[in-house]
Recover the amino acids of this structure.
């Protein structure tokens, strides 16, 4: 049986279910992100075509309970972790 799942992650992805860029299927496969060549584990959202990532800052939250984030510009390389094994 052939695998029909995409081999590359979406151009833009968010871990926030309220975001229009949230994709549960992609997140369930496990998406890893390299930002400027360094593996990042605290990525909340990324966009490859625009070249930015949004990283959570510690455990701080805003008044609505969302994680505080910082947006950084640079080279973004997402990959599926199940294909990297």
């Amino acid at each position: 049986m052939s695998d029909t799942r995409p081999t590359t992650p979406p151009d833009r992805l968010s871990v926030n279910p309220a975001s229009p860029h949230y994709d549960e299927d992609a997140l369930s496969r496990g998406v890893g992100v390299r930002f400027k060549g360094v593996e990042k584990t605290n990525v909340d959202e990324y966009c490859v075509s625009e070249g930015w990532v949004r990283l959570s800052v510690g455990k701080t939250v805003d008044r609505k309970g969302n994680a505080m984030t910082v947006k950084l510009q640079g080279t973004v390389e997402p990959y599926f972790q199940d294909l990297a094994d």
Summary: The longest strand covers residues 52-61.
